[in-house]
């Protein structure tokens, strides 16, 4: 069997959580491979909305969910997620496994995140301040603490050693290192953190690379759920305005311990328009009423931080770049319904970069000299409620999809027309091979 991968092609928040939940019945195992609680994946069903940060989006089904080695975990947030699920009648004990090699986000990593952002001043990344960057930094500089360390005799010694190192670094900055920007005291958070560690002890820590590979050998199907999006990838995103992990398909291999030859379908998910939260370049961003309309109708406010998302038209040069980097086999278009009331829809097909018309993402993506070149298509101007198949779609929506498919050379096999599980149109033969 193969590992199918579902990942974001834009700047995150494409709707990954919703579609993973929808596709879960097709799979035996759902697994996250990178990122951490900077992610906010929203699931809606039965008039009920749930946001997941660390736990894979297959948790509402009878499926095994694995937090892979490439993920960074804040025990405080993980415990809150487990408790919230319990409140909804979902017991994770027998269906949530955690890689022993996943790294832990310490309270002092969160402190460092805040200090580093504050030092950047106007050039700040707009981080979610969940400690992601400092935790991955410690992983790469070989200082990190991992889930598997929790059960070792010298865990406290390792924890204190790393915390002291961070405190030394913090003393050199002028930020208050006794409390977080939201006023929470460090000591209070640390107490919660150790309660979270106790929760992790109650969950199943495994050698997830062996587990996932043995699942494949036994003929079980695996879906890997990406976090963030390709344009936030540490190598290929709009650096330095990116997150600190490889969000692209290659990240699934290192973040799970599976060989490149095991990768099957690559589902690339994008919104029918674009959004971005945090700082950094966004060539098609709209600062006018149209952008405001997208934000309002699309409820474009961050699932993790509540920040308003920046909105703009679909950016095909960036989408094509993402399709290339990930080897996307199937496209998934989200939030088509948000454009229901638009008479016309613009699509950026090229950039005017320093006077030259190009269709690729230039190295200097932060340049203010990238001006989008648009084509305008007729909108469907039609409520999509109740549409259940491709055949029932208004012709303008079909044209919009065909236009994108032609430019990407990849089929759009799923279209989402609302936040609920049921508001999803899937091509009939998608899972018949
Ligand atoms: P993720 O991080 O990629 O999982 O996406 P988020 O959950 O952060 O953001 C997607 C938002 O769009 C959530 O509020 C979803 O409930 C919502 N959503 C998902 N699909 C659709 C859709 O087709 N239409 C509308 N209107 N909302 C959607
Ligand atoms: P999901 O999985 C959207 C953005 C932050 C910031 C930058 C770096 O829900 O799609 P970090 O906290 O990683 O240091 O922030 O990346 N960012 C996201 N934007 N969706 C996300 O996750 C994001 N995770 C991080 O806003 O600009
Ligand atoms: Mg999100």
Question: Would you give an account of this structure?
Answer:
By secondary structure, this protein is of the alpha/beta class. It contains 11 helices and 20 strands. It has helices at 16-23, 75-87, 107-120, 132-140, 155-171, 186-202, 208-217, 250-256, 289-297, 316-326, 395-408; strands spanning 3-8, 29-32, 41-45, 48-52, 64-67, 72-73, 96-99, 103-104, 204-206, 222-225, 263-271, 274-276, 310-312, 314-315, 330-334, 344-353, 356-358, 370-378, 412-416, 424-426. The strands form 5 sheets. The protein has a 10-stranded mixed beta sheet, with helices on both faces. Strands 14, 16, 17 and 18 form a 4-stranded mixed beta sheet that branches. Helix 2 (75-87) crosses helix 6, helix 3 packs across helix 4 and helix 3 packs parallel to helix 5. The protein is globular, with a radius of gyration of 21 Å. The protein starts with a strand and ends in a 7-residue tail after the last strand. The model has no long low-confidence stretch (mean pLDDT 96). The structure holds guanosine-5'-diphosphate, 6-O-phosphoryl inosine monophosphate and magnesium ion. Residues 8, 12-18, 39-42, 44, 298-299, 303, 334-335, 337-338, 416-419 line the site of guanosine-5'-diphosphate.
